[in-house]
Amino acid sequence: MSAATHDRELREIIDGLQQSEKMISPKYFYDERGSQLFDQITTLPEYYQTVTELGIMRANIAELSTLIGPQASLIEYGSGSSLKTRVLLEHLVDLAVYVPVDISEDHLLSSARQIRSEFPGLEVLPVVADFTKQFALPDPTVMPLRNIVYFPGSTIGNFTDDDARELLRVMHHEAGANGAMLIGVDLQKDPAIIERAYNDSAGVTAEFNLNMLRHLNRAYGADFDLPSWSHEAKYNETEGRIEMRLLNSTLQTVNIGHQTFVINEREGILTEYSHKYTLGGFAAMAEQAGFEVAKVWTDAGQLFSVQYCVRA
Ligand code: AVJ
What we know:
With 312 residues, the chain is an alpha/beta fold. It has helices at 3-17, 32-41, 48-59, 61-68, 83-91, 105-118, 161-175, 191-197, 204-220, 279-288, and strands at 72-77, 97-102, 127-128, 146-151, 180-186, 229-236, 241-248, 252-256, 259-263, 268-275, 291-298, 304-311.
């Protein structure tokens, strides 16, 4: 990581800790161990999202592939290491180019290498960028007929409504004229099912949450006292979202950069929102970003949705 990036991130972390409710962006979950723990989460029996989304993709790939048409450019927001991506790469007709976009260069380039070896004829042009801001698309060898922006995993749920709308606007821009967006969106359901997905019995989600502090200690020179912290994930029904926090059990001072924070006993740090949507709620948000939801696929239990959105 460049020194400038490191400094910017350190400032962002400090800024979050200075808010009236302390918060740290979920992007700091994903050091190498955090990425491994997340992969492990996706295989947990309680974490219905990944397996359900993959099932929806497999069940509807023929129709999806017809809607997308030949010679598209597939632009994925995220590093593209998932099985869902492979379903698309295997079935889309005459794909012009695959463009995974991620902020974590190491992870992006290693998964791009992996995809190239699995799909030898495919042009793969990874872009290292913060996808919440506009970025330049690479120039593929074969001229694409249209851009398909792919945002799987309901990662949209990490953003507050305002930020999600803003991100959808960026995607709208990247899709360009006659482009489309394919997005995985987790749905509102019995809160007990949702809470179980973030409080798994094997404790992997707790480990994933706590690993953020280990990451901050190692990569940003912080000195959080790890044994004092515990995992909490609660569904906020009013807001329709999981709120994940780290809870402190002993008064401590934490140093990071040139700042010192006193953290009270029982004080928390907000580490993640994971919004769950109604179909109507998501459609309204997409519409405000210029998209029309043209097709929604769900599973039999209506747990999760994959949505094909065109520029309105
Ligand atoms: C990758 C953001 C979709 O919100 O479910 C999983 C991350 N956090 N368990 C989610 C996560 C805790 C995940 N997203």
